[in-house]
Design brief:
There is one protein chain. The chain is of the alpha+beta class. It has two domains: 17-168 and 228-316, 2-Layer Sandwich (BirA Bifunctional Protein, domain 2), CATH 3.30.930; 329-420, Rossmann fold, CATH 3.40.50. The chain has helices at 17-33, 47-54, 59-64, 83-92, 137-153, 169-183, 192-200, 211-217, 229-244, 289-292, 307-316, 336-351, 365-374, 385-390, 412-420, and strands at 37-38, 44-46, 67-69, 75-78, 102-111, 123-132, 159-165, 250-251, 263-271, 279-285, 300-306, 329-333, 356-358, 379-383, 392-397, 403-407. An eight-stranded mixed β-sheet has the order 1-5-6-11-10-9-7-8. Helix 5 runs parallel beside helix 9 (229-244). The protein starts with 16 loop residues before the first helix and ends with a helix. It binds one RNA strand through helix 3, strand 6, strand 10, strand 11 and helix 11.
RNA sequence: GUGGGUGUAGUUCAACUGGCAGAGCACCGGAUUGUGGUUCCGGGCGUUGUGGGUUCGAUCCCCAUCACCCACCCCA
């Protein structure tokens, strides 16, 4: 029986893991400069947490959650997103007490039962940042700045930021009403999906891909015209701060966040050229979430991005990331005696932090040198009959071909030469 | 969940209307016994994704199934 990996998942292979380390390290370095600290939450939570936060009618909850029941009949779900668990932990650990602001970031796998396609997986890795404790539009801009600086800092160029405001719960209601008034006369011309959306979530009609719906939606009222005064002011301040931070954006009134808890600011970073799944990251303000899941009425703003799409974009722009390291020295022994002589020193070399490779299975000198060459090692260290006599080893620079004999006792000269690449 | 496409060696791909499954790259070994990269020579029976069916005969046709790709949906 040949076992295979579950659909929509993948292995991060050794040749790729250095790339992951790099993008993660860059992310940590940047967010920590903004004062954010990592939070790690379980990959599963009570299913109700997501039902309550994302909205029972959201697609995520309706059909994309991996649910399971434990041995005592409790309902759990693999987390489909990172914000609700962070909010849960914030409330549960009383992070609001003591300091008014909390800056958190997280990294890790999320799970959604979707049909896989380019840039979309069932287990995917997200990086995210949450700022909890202020409604100041400055923080909306700061969150966006972190995201933008991260992506452009990695070298990406063909991306753009789309910005919108979905208002607060009051203006959102007003807007829904305006939309229904507008679509009412066209109701029977809309696609079946949109007819259903009409009652439940009329703004979803706006980004319907069906041509008829799109045509009708073109002249529909937009949310921005229905913002109340505080929300309008908030939105304009966000833009002002973005200008100050020199972060380019375009206003897209059609951005609709998929999850129910968003208020005011909504944004996405889009990358053209990686297929249909072109949102590198998305986020926004969620002033209602904490309260909705049992906390105080605390405002917050954040974003989450996917590493898989990030890699697709980096690849698209041919931005190279580190691969596996090459050995600094490749040990070559001829005969059993040579092996006995060098193994104790091999340990010493490695403990010093030098990456040394040794493949005793290969017999001939030729085969071992070939292996050394293929490994792209910087040096080969050769021990044969001659060297044994003198308790020494022959160090060879594999690029220049230059070689020099080093005594093994003491071994410090040899180590120093390798470390400083002096030969 | 819906539609379309594709599955052949480690990999990239061939194999005419159904007739002996092949090549490049990679990998391994060798070219007088202590020197790699270039060159030359040698090395492949692979459940043709899996399971059925049609046929004298299936990589090829049919059905099912799985996986991947693309789109819808949705989003990261």
């Amino acid at each position: 029986m040949q076992y295979s990996i579950p659909r929509g998942t993948y292995d991060i292979l050794p040749e790729d893991s250095p790339k992951w380390h790099r993008v993660i390290a860059e992310f940590r370095k940047l967010v920590e400069a903004y004062g954010y600290a990592e939070i790690v939450t379980p990959i599963f939570e009570q299913a109700a947490l997501f039902e309550r936060s994302s909205g029972e009618s959201s697609d995520v909850v309706k059909k994309e959650m991996y649910r399971f029941t434990d041995r005592k009949g409790r309902e759990f779900a693999l987390r489909p997103e990172g914000t609700a668990p962070v909010a849960r932990s914030y409330i549960e650990n009383r992070m609001d007490i003591g300091s008014s602001y909390t800056k958190l970031y997280y990294l890790g796998p999320m799970f959604r039962y979707d049909r896989p396609q380019a840039g979309r997986y069932r287990q995917f890795y997200q990086y995210g940042v949450e700022f909890i404790g202020s409604n100041n539009p400055y923080y909306d801009a700061e969150i966006i700045a972190i995201l933008w600086n991260y992506l452009t800092g990695l070298g990406l160029k063909k991306l753009h930021l789309e910005l919108n405001s979905v208002g607060c719960s009051v203006c959102a209601k007003e807007y829904d009403k305006a939309l229904r008034d507008y679509f009412q006369p066209y109701l029977n011309q809309l696609c079946p999906d949109c007819q259903e959306r009409f009652e439940r979530k009329p703004r979803r009609i706006l980004d319907c891909k069906v041509k008829e719906c799109g045509d009708i939606a073109k002249k529909a009222p937009i949310q921005l015209d229905y913002l109340d005064e505080p929300c309008r002011e908030h939105f304009s301040e966000v833009q002002h701060y973005l200008d100050l931070m020199k972060i380019p954006f375009i206003i897209n009134p059609r951005i609709v966040r998929g999850l129910d808890y968003y208020t005011n600011t909504a944004f996405e970073v889009i990358y053209e050229g990686i297929g249909a799944q072109n949102a590198l990251a998305g986020g926004g303000r969620y002033n209602g979430l904490l309260n909705q899941i049992g906390g105080k009425n605390i405002p917050a703003v954040g974003f989450a991005g996917g590493f898989e799409r990030l890699f697709l974009s980096l690849n698209e722009e041919k931005i190279t990331l580190p691969g596996p390291p090459f050995p600094e020295v490749f040990i070559i022994t001829i005969g059993r005696e040579a092996q006995e002589l060098i193994i104790p020193y091999l340990n010493i070399i490695r403990v010093k932090g030098i990456y040394a490779e040794y493949e005793p299975d290969r017999a001939s000198l030729k085969a071992q040198l070939k292996a050394a060459n293929n490994s792209k090692a910087y040096y080969a260290l050769l021990i044969g009959e001659e060297e044994i006599k003198q308790k020494s080893a022959l160090l060879k620079n594999l690029e220049s071909g230059e070689q020099k004999l080093y005594s093994l006792e003491p071994i410090s000269d040899l180590i120093k030469t390798i470390q400083n690449k002096e030969l």
